[in-house]
Batch of 2 targets.
Target 1
Amino acid sequence: MLLDDRKKYLDAEGGTLFGHGSYHIALMYPNPYSVAMSSLGYQVIYRLLNEHPDISCERTMLPDDPEALRRTRKPLTTLESGRPVGGANCIAISLAYEPDLAGVFEMLQLARIPATRAERGDDFPPIILGGPITMSNTLPLAPFADAIIVGDGEPVIQPLVDALLTEVRTGSRQRLLDELAQIPGVYVPARHDSAVPSMLLSPTSDLPAIGQIWTPHAELSNMMLVETSRGCPRFCSFCVMRSTAQPMREAPLQSVIDVMQTDAPRIGFVGAAVSEYSHIKAALRAAIEHGKGVGISSLRADRLDDELVELLTAGGYRTMTVASDAPSQALRGKLKKGLRGKHLIRAAELAASHGMRVFKMYVIIGLPGETQDDLDELVDFSLEIRKIMPRVALGLSPFVPKLHTPLGDATFTPIKEQDKSLKYLRRQLRGRVDIRSVSAKWAWIEYRLSQGGTDIGLAAYDAWRAGGRFADYKRAFDAMQAPERDALEQARNHGLWQPAGMR
Ligand code: SF4
C-alpha cells in the first residue's frame, strides 16, 4: 500500500484498531480498500484477532494502483503501521468469490511471498484462508493455503491463535499443522489431502456480527455494518445459502439495538436474508430513533409493506433493490424462489409512493431451460415496472451452478449464447432501462473454479502468471480437464462440505 493511500484512508476512518500483541497477523483482502471495508466478515475477524492480548492484526488490501506500488520497488505493506506484509508472523486471507483468487496472487506477489505452499516451504509466514467462498468450493484454494477455515470464522479464532502461538514456542511448522488439523472446521491440505472437513457454523450467541470500521471511502459509505441473522429460511435451488445447507440463526433484538450506540452516522444491515429477520422493523426504527441513516443489503419483494418501506425511506434509503433472480415467472418457479411478479410490482408501487428514486432488480440469465420467451417476459416486465418507477435498473448475471445446490450439476450456458441474450436485452431496453451486467467470460471462469478440484486452482495460478486475460484462463483450464475431474470425483467421494447439521 502506498504511503499517500494509507494516510488518506486512516485519516477518514472511525474504529481503527492498533493491536499491541507481539504476534503480527497481516489480514489480507484481495480487493481494493472500498470493497474490503464493505465486508462485514473481514471486519469481524479484524476485531476478534485484535482482542487477543498476544496478537496485533493489521489490514492489507489490493492497492488501488498495483503498478504504482511496483514502480516504487517497495513491497506491499499493512495499512495501520506500514509494515511489510512479508514480515508478519502469519497471513490471514478473506475470500468472498472465486475470481478473487487472482487478487490473492497479485497481493502475494506484491508482498514477495510465493503463492503456492510448495514454493513457500517453511521459510515464509503460514497462510490461513477463509471467507464465504468456503461455503461453495474449498479444494481450488488448497495449493495456496496452509489451513482453510471452512464455514464461519468466529468459533475457530481462539484455537487458531493457540495453534499459531504454538509455532512461536516450538519453532515447528509441522507441529502447527498438526494442531490446526485437530480444530473442527479447519482444513489442512497437508494433513487432510482432499478430505475437506465439514463446515462449522457459529452459534446464535455470535450474533449480531458487528463491523469495526466506518469510512466515507467504503462502498457502504460511513456505515457500521450489522448482521442480524445468518443463513436463510428459503430453499432457492441455485443458492448456497438455502436453509437446507445453513439453518437461519437470529440475533436477539436488544443486542441489535445496543449496536446503535456507535458514533458511525449510518447503520448498514447486511446478510443473505436481512428482510427475513423477525425484528427488522423494530431494528430499523431503533436506528432512526438514534439519529442514524440506514442501508440494507437485500430485500425480498414479498416481505415489503408500507411500514417497512416508510422506515427505509426515513433512514435515507433511496434505491429499492430487490432480486427477481429469473427473467420469467416460470423460471422463478423452477428456482423455487417463492416470489411472483405481483410482489415485484407491489415493491415498485411502494417505492414510488414513498418517493424512492430508483428501482433496481437483480436477474440471473442463462438458467437451465431458458428460452426466448423468458427474455421477452423480462423485457415486458421491466417496461411495466417503468410505468411505476421512472428509473429502472437491471443487474444481470450469468447463471453459475454452485456445488452442493440442487442445480450444482447444471451445465453452464455457452458464453456466445449468454452474450447474445445480453445483447438482445440491451437492444430491447435501450434508453428506457439501465442495464449492468457481469461478463459471461468471467462468469465462466468463476464456474470452472467453483466446480473444480485442486488442479483448477493451480491452473488459475498459471493463467494469472501468463497475464490473467480470459484467453490465458481458457488455455490453462482446457489443458487440465481430466485431472480436474479426478480431483472433483475424489472430493465428492469424501462427502465434503456436508454441513454439521446434515451429517
Ligand atoms: S437466493 Fe436469497 S432467498 Fe433464496 S436461499 Fe439464497 S439468500 Fe435465501
Target 2
Amino acid sequence: MTFISGYLGAGKTTLINELLATADRPIAVLVNDVGAINIDARLIRRRHGDTIELTDGCVCCSLSDGFGAAIDQIRARPEPPDHLVVELSGVADPARVLPWSRSIGFMLDGVVTLVDVDQLSERMTDAIPAHTIEAQVDAADVVLLTKLDLTDAETVAAAKAQLTALAPDTPLLSEPTGSAAAVLNLGGRRNPTFDALPPPTLFDRHVTERVAIPAGTDRVALKKLIDALPRDVVRAKGICVDDTGAAWLAQVVGRRRSVTELPVAEQADDEAATGELVVIRLPE
Ligand SMILES: Nc1nc2c(ncn2[C@@H]2O[C@H](COP(=O)(O)OP(=O)(O)OP(=O)(O)O)[C@@H](O)[C@H]2O)c(=O)[nH]1
Ligand SMILES: [Mg+2]
Ligand SMILES: [Zn+2]
C-alpha cells in the first residue's frame, strides 16, 4: 500500500495518472476527494478502470469505515492487485491512516508527499495550510516537489531549504520526469514506527462549498466563473459540458486558474460528475 499525500492541488491525481500509464502490473487505486463529487476518481477512471472512490469528507477524519470496506473489497477479489495506491485528500494527515496499512494481506510500501513549490511560501503564511503541510511532510518517506516548470531556480532552492528544515532526513525528489517510477516500491517504511494517532481536529478545518455551473456554460464562461472566485479559495475543480457536447475541466489551485478540454474519448458517461464546482476555502 502506497499513500500519496500532499496539500490541495499539489498534483496527486496527475502523478497517479502518470504512474498508471507506465505501470507494468495490476494496481488498484483508492481516491479520497473531500467534495461531494469525486472529480479525481473520474479523472483516474477514464484511463484506468480499477478505481474505488471515497467521497464527501476526509478519510483521516471521518471516512474510516469506508476505507476499511474498500480494503475488504480489494482483498476479497479473485485476483487481488499487486499494489494499492491511495490518494489521500489534500487536507489529510497521513499519520492518521497509516495503521490501515497493517490490514491483513497488505503491507506499507511508503508515504509519498507532494509539495507544490510554486505556492509553498504563500501556503506557509497561513496557519491551517501550514499545519497540514507540516504534518504531511513529517509523515513522508519521500517528498516529491511538483510544479517545477511553473517556477524559477531561486524559488525551488528556497522551498528545498524550507522542507529540509522541516524533515532533515527525508529524501527530496525534484526530477520532473520519472517521478512515477521513483515513488513506488520504496520497499517499506523508512521509519517503521507507528506513532499514536494524532488528533483529527487540526486538519479538516477547510470549508467546502458547491457552486452550480449554469447549463450551457462554455469554456469562456467557465473561466469567468472561476476567475470571479474570491482570493481565499485554495482549491476548486469541476467539469461542465457545453451546448456542443464538449467537456471542460476547471482547475483552481490558489492563484493558478485554468480551463482545459477533456478529450471526448476520455469522457466518462457519469452525468453526476458534471455541472458543479467543488470550492474549498480557508475559514474567515
Ligand atoms: N504546470 C504544472 N501543473 C501541474 C503539475 N502537477 C499538477 N499540475 C496541475 O495542477 C492542478 C492540480 O493537479 P491535481 O493532480 O489535480 O492535484 P491534486 O493534488 O490531485 O489535487 P486535490 O486532489 O484536489 O488535492 C491541475 O490543473 C494539474 O494539471 C506540474 O508539475 N506542473
Ligand atoms: Mg486529486
Ligand atoms: Zn482528515
